[in-house]
Please model this.
Amino acid sequence: EDGGSRTEPCNAFTSPLTALDTINITATDVYYGCYTRVRFEAPNTNAQPFVLRIEADIDDVSIKTGSYTKSWGFGNLTITPLICSSYSNIVPLKTPIRFSSRHSPIILTARQLSSIEHQYLYLLISSVSDIDLQLQFGDSLASNDNGLEWNMISSVSDIDLQLQFGDSLASNDNGLEWNMTVNANVCRLENLQLSTSMDCSNSAYFLSLMNETSANNETQSLLWISWDPYNVDVSNRNFSFGIGAKLYQQTIASSNIYGSETLGVHSHIDYVEIVPIATALDMSISAIQFSLPKICLSQFNESNKLDFGNVWIDDCNANGWELYTDAHLQDDSVYYDENGLRDDSVYYDENGLSQQCPTTQLQTNQVSSLLNMQCFQGPFKGSSSSASNVGDYISRYFYVLSNAQFDIIEISLTYYSLCTWNPEHYENDTALVLVDDTVAWQSAPKYEFVHEYCEGHQLYDDWTLFTDYEDILSSNLIQCLTLLPQICAYPVTLNFRHSADRDLFFSVGVAARLNQVIENEAFAFSNVQVSYSTCPSILPLPIGNVSTSPLYHMDYKFEQAAMLIVSSSSIYYLVADYTTVEYDAAVAANGTGTQCVFTLYGGYKMWSQTSVNCTIAGLPIMQPYSITAEYVVIDPDGTLSFRDSNTNAELWKRRTKCASDDAYYYYAMNKSYSLDTTNAMYSVDCTWSMMISREGPVKVYKNINASVSNDEGVYAATIASPELSAIDELQFTADGSLQLMDQDHNTLSLSPNGADFVVFDAGKLLVFDYDTNSILQQFDFETAQCTLNETIGLIRFIHFMKPGDTLWNDEVLISANCEYKLILKNGKLVILNAVHDVIWSALEYDADSFYDIENDNDTHNIENGAERLEFLNDGNLVLYAYSSSNEILWQTNTSTLMNRDTIFYADHAILSDVGSLFIVDNVSLSAHFNSSGDVEATNEVGADYNYHLICDSEKYDFVDKRYGFYATWISYYHCADNAFVYNQSTPCVVYQYCPRIKHYENMFLDPSDSASSSNCRRYQDETWRSLSNNYMLFQTSITKIGDPRITQPELYIVLSTSNEIEFDTEFDDNYLQYRTLLLRVAAAEQTITLTTKYKSDTYAVPSLFANGTTLEWLWIEWNINFDYIAIGNSQLITAPLHTVQYSAFFKEKLQRNEKLFAYYNLAWTQLAYGTQCHGTMIVQFPPLDVEIAKGCYEELTNVYTPTNNNETLQSTTVAPNDEGHSPEATGKLSTAIIVLLALLGCFALIATVLTVVWYKNGRSSWEWTIHDDRRRCYYAYACCCCCCARENDSLLLETEHMHVAEMIDIVHSKVPYVQMSDNGPMVNE
Model:
């Protein structure tokens, strides 16, 4: 275009043009040649072939020196399927760049920023005080050209930002293209080549960012920049930038300069230059290293979330992991000089070719490498001499895209020790993995790499002498192997809590302390994976005072966490909770006191109601009944019932959420249960029931009303067989077949073998096989019953149309509830309601013509209307004209073909149950079209997905999840065949297995004279529990014991590798072979004692049961590699009260992946009563038998080191004596002290009795009051007492672990009409 005056090709500075220069074009000499790279992304067609066409629109040129023929060509064509799901929500970050006012500009190239290749960039900007920055973008890195093109300028009060983008870094030419600046006074986007500038200072998003930043000095902002020079839509060939996580949303500035053909701007961008321009500056900038194509980000735009997977596998990018030399370790944190970072020039020459790359790819299969990348990082040098010097330090930053408040991040890798030399076994070589530059995992310093890990001496064989890659990891790669051919591999796994709100990114680092005896030792790592998960939703249950069922006083006001139990061995109980109630003004208006929620638990939440005054009488279910002669009882099977005291007749009973007496099972039943004639199974919404009738068959009802029995609904179907006369039970056989059995024990199998669960919901009975994750048998009790007057039309489809479907004149798409109709009538496309009124039309029609659609037979104008409505394969719903089959009268414009804003094809045109027509895709479930006009409105499909298929959905709040369960979504939406057939079409089901959800578990420690097995001074066989974690967290309640200063309760928790240990002999000869820790909690002393066979220490905890509290949280955790045991008394495992050395309490070494303990059990004592225990102690544990990251119970992951300020009351280092016995743990009171306390207790009792006032109430019975604010008295040994209070002129007596016989004698001498009981509130007879 320059008339041939240039003698060199315009792209001569790039090596690929060499090939262009040597092309043999025989027609004419090539005087001038240019090339450009084109990268284009488009969504794949919906099961259709596609065509790639390449062409040029060019003209020959004639000038005074002659005529020249233009020609064109292309090369290096690649077509690559981009599988968005193969990427991860975990995205690497470029190491944050910390700027100061004197900082030089930073240039980041496309080789360093992976997303530049995909024509976008995300920057995470953190400001401590002020941000003042310039970004410049360019498109070349040549030595003879400077390609800076774009300048972006923006300022937000404390943010002053300038970015420059270009294509060259030469000194003799200007290749800068874009300049982007943000500062206090200016927001500007400039193209430097064309001298264009755009002012964005009035942008609403710019002003919003300015206001937000002004209000917060420690702001973190996410900035996106995108450029599309080759977008198919010319109007979208923009250079844009904005704020937030979504591209093209919250746009601050956008220039369509690429779309102007007259300007001819087609350059690409190869680098970005960050230029600090403020005089005072303190900020950090991190470039998010997205490797996924830009088109995959459309999923985020569509569904407001990125769901590419939760595992990141090392991408083997040599520029990803950054190497620092001469790093130092102090207080378990690494420190390094930023100048110690090895520059890229160490690994690349001027042409970008690798010279010395620390990454060796172990997976070279190009087809599978994207999904199965494995690489070996190293070798790296360890320290030289100083113990604090760790030598090389390799790290990488990561950013997690998650909607969760916090995540549990898990790091796994294979660690290698190379050429380690350890002849004397005393070097203390230590492998290190760090998170945020702080040690998060280390090999135990006393375990040598070679001696302990590699050679497998004694118990340790974690390190192996061989790897899977011996042929690759040769002496050619690792030179030290020529001297000492020693490779040890050890798998490392660690996890920590990551707060998505507070800590937007984190770093993972690898290092080693290597004492270089021969200055040849090295380390390496491979197979890095970073994954995230969210913690299970496990909340502690309220625990407090305990009463035993039955309860006779309906007006008895429950305190917070007061419990009504069956027995200490039963899992069923009713508890009152003031903390979870949502204030309801209407309920409060009918009440006389504080509201609370009563919940029936049985290992899961079974039933719940809110009481207006926290009494049973205040429950809504009690309103129709009198409370003068009734009682509430919890049956052994967990049924809560209200009964008549005289006849014991059940007035109501509840075992599920449903308000029906016979609702025994709810939604799901596993193979350990059965259904008989006395109970029924209900659906989630309680509108469907299944029961065995008295006559025999299994009957199914729908539209159930809340009632005593479920047969008041509409009879729907029967499961029966002529071979069975009177069915008695629906049960699972031993081999997993669901069968019916009649009264004569004849059986009929309803499903094949292997069934594990049944689900009853939405008119279906589903039989699931867990092993194959499939439905073995399905019973459908509801079919489509829609009808339509033939004069209106014929029902063709139900609920939705799919691609390929066509609706012709007089055909109807009907909604699932049969009320709304999408009909093409006489060339008119309309939606009718239940009474056939038109509520929507595709085109503007004469409303009068729809006044009486049933009689609208006017067909003379049909030629001017529509012939058919067709749902095309490209996702577009199109109305075609009758006069011309290709003429489009109306369309939804939902085709995604060549649309880079989304990769998901619309595949469902749904007529909803409220009469709206909307189009969604089955991946993001986002609405592409809505007849209401509000595409952004939440559509029912997305809401239904969250409600039905998310395991922790409120739908399953009252479902038994202890054994796992199947979440189901039953809808016509899932049917492959959407054709309507009367009385045959039925909704279809999709499902998802939800793993078992463990809950907190209550353990009731009974008194000595308990009818069930007592835990007083003994570990019960049935209370042994498995322990699968390196921590223990529990809550204990001593509310039912009395004042701990008097009763002196002590809780004993034994943790051991054996489940056969007996109380008070934990360290006898028989048990010395086991690892055992005894934890003693003394409430009166406010101390915690740790005892093993090597050592016993008692620690003061002044906050333990302080200020009269009877509830306490306690925890203990241990870490072998960091050599600590920590204890605390908070609900979260945070800063410990005391930390001690693990090695002082344990000397043993563990096998690989072995836990320190396998079991735990509980016992208790009361020093005031010698060998006796009175009352009840409650201890509540989270699910410790399943591995749950400790981070789920902590604010942050802390690395604990032993502290020197422990207040140790008693410390005894224990050595086994000649017989192998260890002295008993200290801290128990002597017999003399117990006798003294007993005497003092008796004196106190005498003083209390003297204050008792007896008076006659004129009703042939007596009441008494103790003149003491606490209304309690206590006894020791032979002394006894009771607690009493007046409430509503009734006598309530509660025995507190007393000698009942003696108390009856005493009380009956004065109050002959009182009936005594030892299980809770007593009734005045």
